[in-house]
Specification:
Elements (H helix, E strand, L loop, with lengths): L4 H17 L3 E7 L4 E6 L4 E4 L19 E2 L5 E4 L4 E4 H5 L12
Antiparallel strand pairs: 1-2, 2-3, 4-5, 5-6
């Protein structure tokens, strides 16, 4: 199936609007003093939360978080040692895991 130039251009516009609506992750670190993962966003805001609240990170140790990789779009964070991913837009909307993870 071939995509027309018009469809491709429209998809690019939607992508730009989506990316503009959510600030990108620019840094990620674990802060031992407050025992929280901290994700710094392009907007200048830092988002932090305890690991136990995040599906896939709930049993992680600080050493498991080293080598975290921010996706090229800045919308995802990957933790290779855990094979776990966070999606920044979902994080900003308050979704830290599935309903099943939270027992809903």
């Amino acid at each position: 199936m071939e995509i027309s130039e018009q469809s491709f251009a429209a998809a690019k516009r939607r992508g730009r609007r989506f990316k503009a609506a959510f600030p990108a992750a620019v840094a990620v670190r674990y802060d031992k003093c407050i025992a929280r993962l901290v994700i710094s966003l392009s907007s200048g805001v830092d988002v932090s939360f305890p690991l136990k609240l995040v599906q896939g990170l709930e049993a992680a140790k600080p050493a498991d978080l080293t080598g975290a990789q921010i996706s090229s779009s800045g919308l995802g964070v990957h933790f290779p040692k855990l094979d776990a991913d966070l999606y920044v837009p979902a994080l900003l909307e308050g979704f830290l895991g599935s309903r099943r993870f939270f027992g809903s």
